Amino acid sequence: MAATQLISIGVGVLLGLMTLLFIFRIVLSWYPQADLSKLPFSLVAWPTEPLLVPMRKLVPPIGGVDIAPVVWVGIVTLLREILVGQQGLLRMLG
Questions:
Q1: Whole-angstrom Cα distance, residue 12 to residue 6?
Q2: Cβ-based neighbour number of residue 33 at 10 Å
Q3: Phi and psi at residue 9, to the nearest 5°
Q4: For residue 25, what is the DSSP state?
Q5: pLDDT digits (tens, 9 = 90+) for 39-62
Q6: Any idea where the domains of the chain sit in the sequence?
Q7: What distance, in Å, lies between the first and last C-alpha atoms of the chain?
Q8: What is d(CA 33, CA 79) in angstroms, rounded to the nearest whole number?
Q9: CA atoms of 27 and 20, how far apart (whole Å)
Q10: What Cα–Cα distance (Å) separates residue 53 from each residue in 15, 36, 39, 45, 81?
């Protein structure tokens, strides 16, 4: 297996995992009583919070609803498609 294929698979898995974590954050936002500092919720909060904090400054909550995770799902999905989609940059290199 070529190095570009391994990189493509790794990037695809990483971006897929990040998409899944942000979707979990969206679901957790429906349960404000969930303590994000305790397991298992901290497993979702730890990798996503550093990205959500600056996004919340750019896109503040609308009507009390935090849309930053939704924005990140869109960004990560777009990046995944551009990099490892059917005609993605990493696929064309390999």
A1: 10
A2: 4
A3: -65, -45
A4: H
A5: 999 999 999 999 999 999 999 988
A6: 3-93
A7: 10
A8: 32
A9: 11
A10: 19, 14, 21, 11, 24
